[in-house]
Amino acid sequence: MLEVIPAICYVQPMITGWMGSRWHMVQDPVANKRIFLDNVDNYPKSEVMIRMVRPAVGDSLFTAEGADWRWQRRTVAPVFAQRNVNALAPFMTKTAERAASRLTPGSEHELVGEMLSATFDVICDVALSGRDHFDADVYGAAILRYFETVGKASILDFLQMPDWVPRPGALLGRGAVKTMHAMVSEAIEARRNDTGRSAEMDDLLDHMLKAEDPNSGRKMNAQDLLHNMQFFIVAGHETTALALGWALYLLASHPNLQEHARDQAKAVLGDRPATAEDLSRLPYVRQVLDEAMRLYPPVAFLARNAAEDDVLGGREVRRNEIVFLAIYALHRHEMWWDRPNEFDPGNFLDTAVKARHRYLHMPFGAGPRVCVGANFAMMQAQIILATLLARHRFELTDRAPPTPVMHMTLRPDPGVWLKIATE
Ligand code: HEM
Description:
11 strands; CATH 1.10.630.10; 3-stranded antiparallel sheet; 423 residues
């Protein structure tokens, strides 16, 4: 899929092509701001992308548009307020400790798998009452099946096939969706009936059960909750694990930068795992993650539909045309970055960030539809990465380097194999 981004996208701000209808690929910060903020109502999400996830998440926050999206956003945004995310940090710290102790010095590990297991533990703990109450292996197998069927469909397939053609993946993935929905519904019901909980114990699921639209007082019904929780579980752990996997690969490839990150982590943490309170003293760990998501954005490609005629970057965009946002190309664009393909966490020093156009680094999207879970994701990624770096040194192996492959997310193929050094 990454090959659908033509080489010219890395040197030109916008390209236009034809594939059944006219489409545009935009990697220009000014045009991005128009699409994501200034004229956002003119650019609803394209069906091309949404079709892949709708079987699993219905018309939840991620997929909904218009008034249906607005009330859900007003309802869900406070759930992810920094105060609530801070309260979930102890779950992340516990998982980080477990992930660090699973790695054995002297042996090789596949780090994306390790990170998926860690971030899945966190989401199971905060959204599903933990692995003791929930068969995470059965659910994990269903997610994999879903990704390999519905989720693996390519954008090109969708563009070339008329809407009425049944997608084979959608049929194959149906069993997987049924399994996931049954398990999440059961977890929600069990919590709804658990009357013995106090407000101090509130986790993500409790907050979602209590959430209501501040404007109308409307609360989520069983289906709204199911679809939104389902999205949080799948999207929330996969994307974060990929960011961590790529960050570890990049650090292993740049031993001097890894030493700098490790020195900071060891100085702040010593032998203990990171907590939310440590993060302000670990700025370099955050820079490493931001830079890893520049080079390998977990969500590397977005698509919008022009509702009405508009002009982007001086070019006419007509009603119903598709506008692709090639985030991967934006982040490695020769016009916007000095050494676009080089790993340099210095790109995310405060001064460098302030000097740059906001719409040049968009791993979490932007504008009103920016990722609602971004602070949750960043907190979990920083806690896990800092804990791992304080405890271990990561080295490349003799295997071939991973290649980025884009399905719904940008995955390293065949994974990130690294050796854990013996000090
Ligand atoms: C590194 C981790 C993550 C990345 C890179 C990421 C990326 C993104 C991006 C690019 C969007 C915007 C999509 C668009 O505009 O078409 C988005 C939206 C969203 N994300 Fe994330 N995400 C991450 C983690 C999470 C987590 C942890 C959660 C929840 C637990 C989450 C929930 C959502 C939701 C609900 C939306 C839709 C928001 C709306 O449309 O109002 N994400 N994410």
